[in-house]
Design a protein that fits this description.
Elements lengths: L17 E6 L4 H16 L7 E5 L7 H10 L3 E4 L5 H11 L3 E4 L47 E5 L8 H5 L18 E5 L13 E3 L2 H9 L6 H5 L12 H4 L2 E5 L3 H12 L11 E4 L1 H4 L2 H14 L11 E4 L5 H12 L1
Parallel strand pairs: 1-2, 1-3, 3-4, 5-6, 6-7, 8-9, 8-10
Amino acid sequence: MESKKSVNVRYSSRPIKVAFIVPLVDDNISQWILDGIFHESYSRWGGTRSLIIPFCNKDFICDGYLDWLELYDPDFVYSFVDLTPQQTDVIHKKSLPISMIRHEVHGEAERWRQFIPSWPHGFTPIRSISTIKSPYANYHNWSNESQPNLYIAQHFENDESRLLPDNFGIFQGGKGPNFECSTDFNTVCYCEIDLPPYHDVGKERCHSLAEIISRLACKQAKALSKLSSINVSTINHPNEHEWDSSFNLFVGDTISDRLNFWNGRLLSERTESHHFSNMCISKSHIEDEAFLNSLGEFINRHNFRGNGSGSYSLRLRSMSLLKEECESIAQRLRD
């Protein structure tokens, strides 16, 4: 019998979902792996929602992360470690990815760029720069009629100075230069003070991390990381009230610090109204008084997280510092 009822079909595009498996070992290779993952993820639409899974040779992947992998349901599982057939089978049963990819390094591992994820032939992810004209690319509750499309960039190698590439993204994607300018945006580049003038590093140069953070605080510059997270609410992650109710500041530069900073953001970012909810800095940054002042300004202007109608909250976290060290840093931030 033929039905006369009409059927409404709705569809929408979504970014790819990628789970990376990385070795939980504090060595230079593991640091370079995170450099490569962060670099690629910020340049890809939806890349900030990528899950990074720690792998331990002894324990494989802990049950909590296997459960998270199952909930995340990735399209691709991209591994930087060798997996046994039994381990591969577990991952397949948990997530049924379209494809599992093993990263290959040709020759000796000598630089972080050898660990930038490489996608299969014929597959090209959408670049995050494609969202630059979205209204969500603008700062929320902007007080002026217009705001400059000035994005931060960096001339230093990522593993030389990680603060900007770890937190805000500095790569637009593609094979062109990192500092290309167009009618849509310009860049302010963190670079060496003695960099020759003939080097093309964008519209403006800046030689101080404190100044870069201050410009982000005052909404005089933007971060490419925001472009990667626009319209990605269809990618679900667990939500934790403890993470969602505070701005989370990680202090430390170990593998665990950087990995938990990244994944912690997945537990707390549910709105596109605000640009920043987590940040990761090195302990050495705290010793720089100018940077510390800029950091305080940044947090005061971008932290809108708290419990109900109470005051806004910041939660300081570290996987590498003692509790006493964290309490000392927290007091300096309060001051």
